[in-house]
């Protein structure tokens, strides 16, 4: 096991008191100070540093934590999956020991599930991309099974590299994992995480990215399958000229919980970020969660940032939670904004299509397809885009049945 790395913050376990907050002389307070900024959250690679999750925490309050059990608190199988990296061409790929210096460069867990995975994984899958790849590189991740597992993946794009890397998740899973992404100077990396799990699969995934000088990361999440899916990307723009795009598309049907918590951290001059997540919900108990945090630090002059989330409600009995947060510590920025909207079909769109002889049901399907494909078409690979279009069509057909 490697030595745990922990950062202590205001009134977290073992931490120091928040400035200006002290106990009264007539008795101490028995609760901690609220964390005032996203960057002040407690982080650690050791699960023992985190308190038990109650579901009242800011980053867990929308999640069905009672159904996560072992992934939060129990023993996990951290061994190497049998076929986690099958069918790979055009890049360097190896399993590295948890003590490798290649691990821990992109970020540190902010929650107990991620820390539990970090504490118990045995080896990490290291993917190194160099040169320019015109075809997408797909990692077929389908060997996890139904036992509670931990996993760790490190994806590195060498300076000036160009590539599209797809993490394709299918089959059964009961998985908590961390994915580290390091984008070298001047590199352009598109990382796509596709969740097409079997019904009932549980997948908790924390992504951490470091984007180099004048480099660009396009991070795309498409969540369609699974029972509980929670993919949380964090992008650190710590070098001048870094660009981060976080895009997401999701379709939740009856009883399905799809959650995405996105964090864009601007910590260098002239950085840029764009966040666009779009989702559709249909069926009793369908639940989606999107939380978007953008932090523009005092050191990030000239920052240009915008985040948005749109949800399309297709039936009664669904719930979409959407929370954009924007923190700005400097007045010297190029622009910053956020938006969130959740609603039903636009009647004018439906009327327009029906006036041209299209049935109401087909008109609704066309609207949903167009709504989600705006994100999927950003992948840049025709084959995977066609596959996902077919998957969305299947979701719409099944939901309408």
From TrEMBL:
Domain (SUF system FeS cluster assembly SufBD core): residue spans on this chain: 148-371
Record-linked InterPro entries: Fe-S_cluster_assembly_SufBD, SUF_FeS_clus_asmbl_SufBD_core, SUF_FeS_clus_asmbl_SufBD_sf, SUF_FeS_clus_asmbl_SufD
Gene Ontology terms describing biological process: iron-sulfur cluster assembly
Residue ranges of the region described as Disordered: 1-30
Family note: Belongs to the iron-sulfur cluster assembly SufBD family.
UniProt protein name: Fe-S cluster assembly protein SufD
Species the sequence originates in: Leucobacter tardus
Protein encoded by which gene: sufD
């Amino acid at each position: 096991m490697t030595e745990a790395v922990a950062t202590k913050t205001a009134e977290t376990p073992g931490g120091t008191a928040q400035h200006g907050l002290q106990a009264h002389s007539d008795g101490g307070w028995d609760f901690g100070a609220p964390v005032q900024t996203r960057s002040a959250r407690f982080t650690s690679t050791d699960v023992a540093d985190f308190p038990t999750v109650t579901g009242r925490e800011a980053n867990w309050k929308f999640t069905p934590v009672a159904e996560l059990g072992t992934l939060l608190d129990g023993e996990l199988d951290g061994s190497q999956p049998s076929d986690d990296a099958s069918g790979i061409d055009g890049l360097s790929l190896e399993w590295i020991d948890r003590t490798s210096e290649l691990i821990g460069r992109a970020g540190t867990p902010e929650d107990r599930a991620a820390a539990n995975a970090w504490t118990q994984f045995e080896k990490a899958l290291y993917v190194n991309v160099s040169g320019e790849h015109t075809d997408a590189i797909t990692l077929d991740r389908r060997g996890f099974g139904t036992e509670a597992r931990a996993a760790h993946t490190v994806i590195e794009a060498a300076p000036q590299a160009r590539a599209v890397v797809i993490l394709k998740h299918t089959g059964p899973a009961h998985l908590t994992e961390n994915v580290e992404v390091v984008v070298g100077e001047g590199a352009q990396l598109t990382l796509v995480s596709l969740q097409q799990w079997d019904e009932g699969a549980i997948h908790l995934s924390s992504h951490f990215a470091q984007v180099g000088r004048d480099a660009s990361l396009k991070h795309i999440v498409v969540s369609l399958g699974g029972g509980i899916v929670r993919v949380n990307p964090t992008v650190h723009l710590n070098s001048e000229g870094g660009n981060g795009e976080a895009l997401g598309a999701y379709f939740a049907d009856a009883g399905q919980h799809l959650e995405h918590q996105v964090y864009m951290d601007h910590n260098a001059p002239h950085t840029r970020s764009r966040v666009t997540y779009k989702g559709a919900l249909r069926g009793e108990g369908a639940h989606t969660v999107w939380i978007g945090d953008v932090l523009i630090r005092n050191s990030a002059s000239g920052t240009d940032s915008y985040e948005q989330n749109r949800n399309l409600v297709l039936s009664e009995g669904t719930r979409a939670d959407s929370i954009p947060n924007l923190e700005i510590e400097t007045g010297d920025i190029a622009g910053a904004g956020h938006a969130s909207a959740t609603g039903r079909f636009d009647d004018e769109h439906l009327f327009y299509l029906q006036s041209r002889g299209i049935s109401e049901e087909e008109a609704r399907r066309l609207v949903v397809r167009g709504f989600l494909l705006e994100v999927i078409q950003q992948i840049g690979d025709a084959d995977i885009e066609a596959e996902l279009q077919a998957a969305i069509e299947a979701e719409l057909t099944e939901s309408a049945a």
